Amino acid sequence: MALSEDTPASLTGWAGVFTLPNLISFARLACIPWFVWLLFGAGSRMQAALLLAVLGATDWVDGWIARRFEMISDVGKVLDPTADRLLLVVALIGMIVDGSVPTWFAMAVLTREMLVGLAAIILALLGAVRIEVTWWGKTGTFALLIAVPSFLAGESTGFAHHWFAVGGWVFGLPGLLIAWWAAYGYVPLALSALRDGRAARKASAIPDNTV
């Protein structure tokens, strides 16, 4: 996809690694063990839910910073969705074990995340060009990152836990539908990425006979 004059180019090399948005994504990954400890070690669903909510909110924060201050990077385009996916997968598996999320809902989200992740690996192995995360994909993930901690807080004994349980469904069902719709939308993008990857390899294999 061609960049418009208003679209900043992605940072590459080391300049695209140590950016503030990427550091936030790294911090999000580093906090995943803390979430697991709060849920199982400390036995506090509410504290685990609050941490999960904060980590989910940073998904919006790092994206805003990257766009606002022109810190979009190739590393960030991979790191950010990877952090989101790992956060959701670990949280949902932990909550299934803890019994704080409907199993069918968690399995529907996990199945979608595993299929998209597996497809990304296969496409990379086949030499496809990288696919940008779509608006629908980000919207579905963001809704789920609100729903999952809401489900967890709803199963706690904390303040207004009944309302959190309601919020889990309010954000969870639309988020799940949007996430699956986004996954379906990646199919034509994947086919196009495969064609572009093959075309690029063929072009690089043609010897340059110009003098």
Describe this structure in words.
With 211 residues, this protein is an all-alpha fold. It has one domain (13-199): Up-down Bundle (Four Helix Bundle (Hemerythrin (Met), subunit A)), CATH 1.20.120. The chain has seven helices and no strands. It has helices at 20-30, 32-41, 45-68, 74-98, 103-125, 135-154, 161-205. Helix 2 runs parallel beside helix 4 (74-98) and helix 4 (74-98) runs antiparallel to helix 5. The protein is globular.
Q: Outline of this structure?
A:
The chain has about 210 residues and is mainly α. It is about 75% helix and about 0% strand. The chain has helices at about 20-30, 30-40, 45-70, 75-100, 105-125, 135-155, 160-205.
Shape: globular
CATH class: Mainly Alpha
Beta-strand share of residues: under 5%
Low-confidence runs of at least 5 consecutive residues: 1-7
The CATH topology assignment is: Four Helix Bundle (Hemerythrin (Met), subunit A)
User: Separation of termini?
Assistant: 31 Å
CATH homologous superfamily (4th level) name: CDP-alcohol phosphotransferase transmembrane (TM) domain
How many helices? The count is 7
Largest sheet: none
Total DSSP E strands: 0
How large, in whole angstroms, is the Cα Rg?
19 Å
Helix content estimate: over 70%
Pattern of helices and strands: HHHHHHH
Mean pLDDT level: 87
